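Ligand: acetoacetyl-coenzyme A. Inputs:
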Amino acid sequence: MLTIVSVILSKYFTMDLSLSEEQLMIQKAAREFAQQQCLPGVIERDEHQKVPKEQLLQLADLGFMGIMTPTEYGGAGMDTISYVLAMEEISKVDSSVSVSVSVNNSLVCWGLEKYGNEAQKQKYLTPLAQGKKDGALYLGAFLLSEPEAGSDATHQHTSAIDKGDHYVLNGVKNWITNGSTASVYLVMAQTDASKGSRGINAFIVEKNTPGITVGPKENKMGIRGSDTHSISFMDVIVPKENRIGDDGFGFNFAMKTLNGGRIGIAAQALGIASGAYELALAYSKERKSFGKPIHEHQAIQFKLAEMATRIETARLLCYKAAWEKDNHMDYVMSAAMAKLHASDTAMWVTTEAVQVHGGYGFVKEFHVERLMRDAKITQIYEGTSEIQKMVIGRSITR
Ligand code: CAA
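Predicted complex:
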């Protein structure tokens, strides 16, 4: 009797943390790509703030721009865990590359796949998931933040006036990843301020539409290669068929899409932390002090032990959030927890990795210096750590 009960229970309460053949394949492909194509020149691209277009084109060819998008829309048709694995491997080496991959995959392609209509998917999702159109790079960007609406995203100043068969957009968007390289923008704008967040709409806007101006590239502390710009809209005409969902659905669209985006940024933070840890571990085996390799000193072993433990907890949170999303469960809180913890882990681990390297960790020839600068943004974009705590707090207390 007991055996039958335990067999039935094990069917419903299995805990299998092993990766499938397919997931291991994408992890390996992403690792090899990062080591062979992203590592060479990463320091120079960071120094000169060079957008990694070549790497993004190669990733498009390999199917990394629409990892989770169904194959009928040009994607790879894989799960969110596969996306997390790819993000971790690329971010170990170059987060200026991985942030473009993340925005295109989870904010743009996933948002369109989930909430776009069939005509929108045929026209925009397919080339976006392929990352290419007519042989050229074809990416998307997500335009929510504004100069005066970052964390407080409901207070959109960008307006979208309804003119019958089209809308007219005016306003400015800030901190836009893929700002100049993207061909398609998903823009959130206020149509009826009296309705608050329910008066906001989301639009698919082609970048070459008259009235759009791309500002200069931001000179950033980290992810310096990534293509970050402000975008201005002056009397930009957007056809009504480019609105996503019903009138007033725009803020919900942004929030629901960001929930998945946060898993991507958590995986990016995880990758930055793992990359720094692997470098610190390797260095600690080479570097000698007081007559032995430094990893034989307990002071260094304790650091490595704590790094490894924090990284493992971040990885588990990322996998859990991804697994919940793949299994159509409520993943809002798990995604926020994964991002909160993984980004704090990235900041802590990279700082300790610099410490393990001593003076060498403070110079630009050693990758940990860049990884420490790159880690910081993961506590800020796609919802600051404080916003993640708000989301978690509201989920716990509702
Ligand atoms: N998931 C689903 N729906 C959500 C949600 C979530 N995580 N958070 C809020 N909502 C919904 C609410 O249910 C509510 O819906 P209804 O109108 O249907 O009831 C609506 O959104 C309004 O929510 P609130 O009343 O809770 O609004 P608020 O103003 O009190 O708080 C907020 C909203 C959670 C603080 C939100 O503004 C927020 O998440 N801010 C952070 C914004 C952000 O993450 N920006 C990142 C910019 S994008 C970026 O960085 C891209 C890049 O290029 C890298």
